[in-house]
Amino acid sequence: MFQRILVANRGEIALRVIRACKELGVEVVVVYSQADRNAPYLELADRAICIGKAQSTDSYLNIPRIIAAAEVADVQAIHPGYGFLSENPDFAQICRDCNFEFIGPPHEAIRRMGLKTEAKAVALAAKVPCVPGSSGPIGSPHEAMALARTIGFPVLIKAAAGGGGKGMRVSRDESSFAASLQSAKNEAEAAFKNSSVYLEKFIDKPKHVEVQILADNHGNVVHCWDRDCSLQRRHQKLVEEAPASTLPNKVRQRLGEAAVRLAKAVGYTNAGTCEFLVDSDNNFYFIEVNARIQVEHPVTEMTTGIDLVKQQIRIASGEKLSFSQDQIVIRGHSFECRINSEDPDLDFRPSAGKITGLRIPGGPGVRWDSHIQAGYSIPPNYDSLIGKLIVHAPTRDDAMAKMRRALDELVIEGVQTTIPLHKRIFRNEAFAEGKVDTTWIEREFMPPKPKLD
Ligand code: MV4
């Protein structure tokens, strides 16, 4: 096992990694920006090193400064958390070139999975079902139109270097196709400096189901079953659950096996997620790989009893997985609510400021993953996730009741939060029946308000 690890992240995930290190008996060093100098979790680390100004490019995205901190602190490994540099293949490569273990997959696998067209090619070769579409980036507009006709409208134009919905356009018919293609390419070029796009059949009202993977450096790959992350607004997840409530067990089994085949085919190691779309007939289609620990990993931890962050560290240090696939069983049901400092009444505008009051929920089956405390000021420079409320209970209904109870206990004063929205979601009948998909929040639950003047 490592003697000392550097955490190259902030907020709740930095604290989550610090906690894992402590339980493993590993010393932990955390970097921070000037905006985070008063963050309460810094005291829990063995050492905290300031790496620069508030702006991420001067701190959490600044590779030379993070490597310098790792050198100064004399760590053996770097945990990137999620976001920031976590899926930057150059950073992973530089860590290893500098003799620091990168706690994540090999840079080659990150690079390959970063190109969605590559990921799909690997998936198809591994007999993992994909959405029907172009086999790779498309060529001329003329070729693209011919391909769109073959696939059949509506089609979705996606950025090869994309993910999270950027550079994505639906084209419903031939008349709008050329314009949609051009605007998708422009957006992709601006966002990713890569205008390459590909085509897929548009799946109507899909669910977003993902499979958690763990792979060691000795060829062992297991999956930790699935999560449903369909409750999203503008590609920002709001609520996640495990297991996906509407998936028949036979489909669940095949989904897990498909994810393992894919991970093996790319030489994936450490923790990762295979994302799938699931249509109303429970057909599933691979769409992309997330080569990092994810925000929603706790729902899998609650239902499988596996500490995924400790597993990441163990794997990176060269340990073999200590359990086999048949020892990973789903127990009960888990939900996570993302608590953001945003105002749902003002189009989810970020609401930074001082936390003047805080009441944290507790009791059996309730988990609160958060870096905030009363008196702490949320800096305006980073994303607005301030906490994750997670529950675990024997059945989905029990877990819903527990979440309602925990949400009623949770009080955050001083900033606007998404708590009221979550309270409404957990009282909604369609949600209770699992009858929601990725379009539901914006289509049915909170359609955009008409602008009055
Ligand atoms: C799709 C789709 C329908 N058909 N692909 C959005 C982000 C990226 N991860 C993939 N996304 C989608 N791909 C096909 N062929 C619908 C979405 C989509 C979506 C997917 C997952 C979660 C939320 C979503 C919200 C809107 C659209």
Give a description of the structure.
The protein is of the alpha+beta class and 453 residues long. It has three domains: 4-103, Rossmann fold (3-Layer(aba) Sandwich); 132-201, ATP-grasp fold, A domain (Dna Ligase, domain 1), CATH 3.30.1490; 207-444, ATP-grasp fold, B domain (D-amino Acid Aminotransferase, Chain A, domain 1). The protein is built from 14 helices and 22 strands. The strands form six sheets. The chain has an eight-stranded antiparallel beta sheet with strand order 13-12-9-10-11-14-21-19, with helices on both faces. A five-stranded parallel beta sheet has the order 3-2-1-4-5. The chain has a three-stranded antiparallel beta sheet with strand order 7-6-8, covered by helices on one side. The N and C termini lie far apart (63 Å). The model has no long low-confidence stretch (mean pLDDT 96). Bound molecules: ligand MV4.
List the helices and strands and how they pair.
Layout: E1 4-7, H1 11-24, E2 27-33, E3 47-52, H2 63-73, E4 77-79, H3 89-97, E5 101-102, H4 107-114, H5 116-125, H6 141-151, E6 155-159, E7 169-171, H7 174-192, E8 197-201, E9 207-215, E10 221-233, E11 236-242, H8 249-265, E12 270-278, E13 284-290, H9 297-304, H10 308-316, E14 333-340, E15 342-343, E16 349-350, E17 353-354, E18 357-359, E19 366-369, E20 377-378, E21 385-393, H11 396-409, E22 411-413, H12 419-425, H13 429-432, H14 440-445
Parallel strand pairs: 1-2, 1-4, 2-3, 4-5
Antiparallel strand pairs: 6-7, 6-8, 9-10, 9-12, 10-11, 11-14, 12-13, 14-21, 15-16, 17-20, 18-22, 19-21
Helix pairs in contact: 3-4, 6-7
The structure holds ligand MV4.
Ligand MV4 is lined by residues 131, 156, 163-165, 168, 200-203, 206, 208, 232, 235, 277, 287-288, 438.
